[in-house]
Write a sequence for this structure.
């Protein structure tokens, strides 16, 4: 671009090099990358939900039970409540981060983690019952995707719980260093994201399954 | 939940037995001996010259984006060679096994390769060329150039960058390993269901294919996150969106494609994996599986993937053509829009890969039309390049030759792509050689741009230009090979020859198949010229040393620092005032590289953890292929443990002291000012070059610097 042909440049008035350049904001760079990661994971879920749509035809039941016969609304309700309470607790933990209270952050996170474990326990009971009745992923194409989505989501919860454990240890050791803070923020994104995804799971897997 | 396997299995070694080592196959045995000798030579030489420390410190543990990029390119080149040998075998087999009377050898009835072996070869060829040759080469070049072009000192996440490299490498290594342990898939690089399901492909081949693919998915997705974050977050002050170099724009658009499409492939392959390992029924023929689901998921990735490959190539052309036309790029804004239009449209065309698979006519028409829409932005790009050259001062140096070849191939490939896009046409030649020739035009376009980009940016990374003589021989033999191999293929496709044949029943096709073999001979010679090109360049490197601005007429930020680029890229972060900043500075006579008053520079520290994670991921994949559960679990646990341990590491950064920066800058300046008269002295000579060329198309005006390049100037 030759802006220069029309415009006279005074070299002494120009900034050509940055002195004492502070670099880029580490925390915002890290969280931005985490958003990108979540976009990829959202795509994974999108593909899985699309597969659910494809495999929800009567043909795909292959003689196995339809969703309405296996979905237990009580468990689904319990999972929803625990997961959302867990996210709420994590939210309080982040409020405590603003005031720099270590106890508040660790406390909120601990509650959040416990609720995550409760969520997993409920999910395990639910699936355990189904498995015990012989309702397993191998039964039909529909059940394959049904369990895959539930288990994939539950795996994220496992990761989140482990991550919280790690963060509690890191807060105890380092306090709120830049590294710890960006990880706490990313973990918040991660945890909220799981709740958002749960809304989709609930809608597409449970509600739609009950209706269909 | 685990499936029942055919054949033996034991807890210690899984399915692995001695019979799985194909030592009785002379071709594989020869390959093994070749690889072993090469390995011994390389490892031996490293030991003999005491270079292990160097290799470990400078390469294996590095987080420097330039070195990671170079390693990506090396992986890409090695895999390109492997893919080329595969191609050679397919073409020779098809030149021999024509008609019932054709001879057979080495256990094959016709030709010298059994159908099972041919199947593995074309599958490996496709997979390797797409995800282990083209992708690493492109990602490697983006890795090197993008941070330089936006005036950054590194990528946004250097550690993740190294991890992406080692995961991709692990995938490539797994494909190589399948040569000597077990076998590879033999049903085509994109797989078919239910053919790739366990009952029909009970061997380990499909598992190798699947896990190698998955590793590359992980590596590429991480790379795309990194490049996008780098471009969005790390641009130098003053570099607004519309000042961004066009290659950076292309990288952004291409990585957005990767970011959104690779996860879908992960699902496509992951569900296949569940079918094969856990006995689910996603793609099975009965039990409520859906065969089309795989095709859709795969090609929802597959088509964006081809644009993921081509957009960086377009970006490279858009850098090379202005430099060697000595003009600014024509239609910058339209180029940006076109890149994103291509990226966007690429999401809505996947069905054209299976027009013949029972979609309703209106569905086919829809995808037919969307496919043709891609031609519009692509056409815009072609015209922009042509107008860039129009009335420019075109210099036919090697990078430019490659870019022009790429342009030509784009025309041929694009036109034939349009022909494929008519569903009615495609019904006639789907899965035929016409399609194969079409996409090879496209893929060779990518190869041509990559070679052009390597020629173009090589001096930036290594400090000397590649010589031109052998390089031109290489170029022209590549041109010859491409013509002789692929023009007959278009004809064969029209004549009805289908792809992936191990035996050709029609002797009428023989002349064409023999002509393609001549083309392969040209390619072989080209490879030899390439080796000579590299060898002579390395030998004569002192003669070809260059300064910061190797070509004299280049336009972007990457030419504003020394060649080779110091570890910290820029001693001072540049402040960007214009689009084509470097050309702008040269035009205005302010092209000195800054010196004096250096500051400490903060950089990430080397770490071996990405390498170990890569090795473990390879172990994990290997264990899963052979179903050695204890090993898989061990690798997985170790990976998780390593990641957690690394997160506790507080000592991840280091500072390059100002004194060291000064020493490096001084050495770069003095080193290049000595031996080479023209275009050698940093800053000064660059300005001299642009003075000589003043009055030409792009860079004009008075461009003499009043002060020596290194005089400290405080702005
Ligand atoms: C003008 C743009 C293009 C159009 C209209 C187009 C059209 C098509 C169509 C319709 C097919 C399917 C033919 C069949 O299987 O029967 C196809 C296949 C293919 N195209 Fe293109 N294409 C275009 C650009 C590209 C580019 C840029 C690339 C690569 C960088 C590419 C690579 C491929 C590959 C790899 C296949 C075949 C994959 C396989 O079957 O193994 N195409 N193209
Ligand atoms: Cu396509």
């Amino acid at each position: 671009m030759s802006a220069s042909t029309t415009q006279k440049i005074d070299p002494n008035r120009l900034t050509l090099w940055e002195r004492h350049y502070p670099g880029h904001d580490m925390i915002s760079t890290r969280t931005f990358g985490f958003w990108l990661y979540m976009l990829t994971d959202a795509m994974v879920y999108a593909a899985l939900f699309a597969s659910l749509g494809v495999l929800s035809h009567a043909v795909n039941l292959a003689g196995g039970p339809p969703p309405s016969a296996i979905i237990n609304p009580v468990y689904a309700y319990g999972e929803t409540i625990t997961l959302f309470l867990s996210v709420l607790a994590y939210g309080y933990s982040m409020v405590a981060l603003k005031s720099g209270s270590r106890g508040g952050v660790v406390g909120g996170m601990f509650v959040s983690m416990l609720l995550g474990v409760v969520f997993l326990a409920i999910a395990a009971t639910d699936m355990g019952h189904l498995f015990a009745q012989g309702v397993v992923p191998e039964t039909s194409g529909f059940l394959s995707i049904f369990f895959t989505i539930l288990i994939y989501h539950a795996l994220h919860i496992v990761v989140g719980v482990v991550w919280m454990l790690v963060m509690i240890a890191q807060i105890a050791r380092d306090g709120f260093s830049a590294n710890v803070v960006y990880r706490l923020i990313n973990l918040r994104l991660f945890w909220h994201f799981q709740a958002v995804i749960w809304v989709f799971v609930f809608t597409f897997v449970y509600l739609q399954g009950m209706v269909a | 939940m685990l499936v029942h396997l055919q054949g033996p299995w034991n807890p210690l070694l899984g399915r692995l037995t001695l019979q799985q080592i194909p030592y009785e196959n002379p071709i594989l045995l020869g390959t093994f001996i070749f690889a072993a000798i090469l390995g011994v030579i390389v490892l031996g030489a490293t030991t003999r010259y005491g270079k292990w420390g160097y290799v470990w410190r400078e390469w294996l543990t590095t987080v420097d984006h330039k070195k990671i990029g170079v390693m990506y390119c090396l992986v890409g080149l090695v895999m390109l060679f492997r893919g080329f040998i595969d191609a050679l075998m397919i073409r020779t087999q098809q030149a021999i096994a024509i008609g019932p009377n054709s001879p057979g050898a080495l256990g094959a009835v016709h030709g010298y390769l059994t159908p099972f072996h041919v199947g593995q070869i074309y599958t490996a060829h496709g997979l390797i060329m797409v995800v282990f040759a083209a992708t690493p080469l492109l990602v490697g070049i983006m890795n090197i150039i993008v941070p330089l072009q936006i005036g950054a000192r590194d990528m946004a996440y250097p550690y993740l960058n190294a991890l992406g490299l080692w995961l991709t490498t692990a995938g490539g290594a797994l494909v190589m390993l399948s040569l000597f342990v077990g076998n590879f898939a033999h049903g085509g690089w994109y797989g078919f269901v239910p053919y790739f399901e366990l009952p029909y492909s009970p061997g380990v081949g499909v598992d190798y294919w699947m896990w190698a693919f998955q590793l590359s998915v992980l590596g590429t997705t991480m790379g795309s996150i990194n490049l996008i974050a780098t471009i969005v977050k790390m641009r130098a002050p003053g570099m607004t969106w519309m000042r961004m170099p066009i290659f950076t724009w292309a990288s952004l658009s291409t990585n957005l494609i990767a970011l959104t499409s690779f996860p879908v492939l992960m699902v496509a392959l992951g569900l296949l994996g569940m079918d094969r390992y856990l006995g689910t029924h996603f793609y099975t023929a009965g039990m409520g599986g859906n065969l089309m689901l795989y095709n859709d998921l795969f090609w929802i990735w597959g088509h964006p993937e081809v644009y993921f490959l081509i957009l960086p190539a377009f970006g490279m052309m858009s850098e090379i053509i202005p430099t060697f036309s000595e003009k600014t790029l024509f239609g910058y804004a339209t180029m940006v829009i076109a890149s994103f239009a291509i990226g966007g449209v690429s999401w809505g065309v996947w069905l054209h890969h299976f027009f013949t698979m029972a979609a309703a006519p209106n569905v086919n028409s829809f995808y037919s039309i969307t496919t043709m829409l891609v031609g519009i932005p692509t056409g815009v790009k072609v015209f922009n390049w042509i107008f860039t050259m129009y009335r420019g001062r075109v210099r036919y140096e090697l990078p430019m030759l490659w870019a022009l070849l790429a342009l030509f191939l784009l025309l041929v490939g694009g036109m034939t792509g349009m022909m494929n896009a008519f569903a009615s046409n495609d019904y006639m030649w789907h899965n035929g050689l016409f399609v194969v020739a079409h996409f090879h035009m496209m893929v060779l376009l990518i190869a041509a741009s990559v070679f052009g980009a390597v020629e173009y940016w090589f001096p930036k990374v290594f400090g000397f230009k590649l010589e031109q003589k052998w390089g031109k021989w290489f170029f022209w033999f590549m041109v010859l090979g491409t013509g002789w191999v692929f023009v007959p293929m278009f004809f064969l496709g029209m004549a009805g020859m289908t792809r992936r044949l191990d035996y050709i029943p029609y002797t009428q096709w023989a002349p064409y198949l023999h002509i393609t073999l001549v083309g392969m001979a040209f390619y072989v010679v080209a490879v030899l010229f390439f080796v000579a090109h590299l060898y002579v360049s390395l030998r004569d490197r002192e003669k070809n040393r260059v300064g910061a601005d190797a070509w004299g007429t280049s336009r972007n930020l990457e030419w504003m620092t020394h060649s080779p680029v110091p570890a910290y890229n820029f001693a001072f972060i540049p402040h960007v005032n214009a689009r084509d900043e470097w050309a702008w500075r040269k035009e205005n006579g302010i092209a000195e590289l800054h010196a004096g008053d250096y500051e400490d520079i903060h950089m990430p520290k080397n770490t071996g953890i990405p390498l170990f994670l890569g090795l473990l991921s390879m172990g994990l994949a290997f264990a899963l292929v052979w179903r050695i559960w204890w090993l898989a679990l061990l690798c997985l646990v170790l990976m998780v443990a390593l990641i957690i341990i690394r997160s506790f590491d507080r000592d991840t950064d280091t500072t390059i002291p100002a004194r060291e920066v000064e020493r490096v800058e001084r050495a770069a300046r003095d080193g290049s000012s000595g031996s080479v008269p023209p275009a050698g002295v940093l800053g000064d000579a660059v300005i001299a070059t642009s003075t000589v060329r003043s009055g030409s198309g792009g860079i004009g005006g008075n461009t003499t610097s009043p002060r020596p390049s290194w005089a400290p100037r405080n702005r």
